[in-house]
Specification:
The protein is of the alpha+beta class. It has a domain of about 70 residues. It contains three helices and six strands, in the order E-E-E-E-E-H-E-H-H. The strands form two sheets. It has a four-stranded mixed sheet. A two-stranded antiparallel ribbon has the order 1-2. Strand 1 and strand 2 form a beta hairpin. The longest helix has 12 residues.
């Protein structure tokens, strides 16, 4: 099992094993991070990593998982973004059962 040296922002350099580190890779843009729990302060540390670092970690036996960007990022959005007043109006609407039923009926 390989020894991996990483850095905790509170504790400084720490030595880990391949079982202590986990890699995550985005399938959409190949961005990668690695994470570990610091053996001293027990905080989880997540760091961005370049492709070369990710490749070295995986080659040394570090477990990895992949993920995808949310589909909402590629949706087209028309109109103005909602604002604080819109949220207050929506909150008021949710409190009025009769008005909410009328509006919901329009979408059936």
């Amino acid at each position: 099992m390989a020894t991996i040296r990483a850095s905790c922002s509170d504790c400084g350099d720490v030595e880990l094993t391949t079982a202590d580190v986990h890699v995550r890779i985005c399938d959409d843009n190949n961005a990668g991070t690695y994470s570990f729990r610091c053996p001293f302060c027990r905080m989880t540390v997540v760091k961005p990593a370049e492709t070369r670092t990710i490749d070295l970690l995986i080659a040394s036996g570090v477990a990895f998982s992949t993920w995808r960007l949310p589909a909402e990022l590629s949706e087209h959005h028309a109109g103005e973004p909602i604002n604080h007043d819109d949220l207050l109006d929506f909150h008021d609407l949710l409190q009025d059962d009769l008005r909410l039923s009328e509006i919901m009926a329009e979408f059936r």
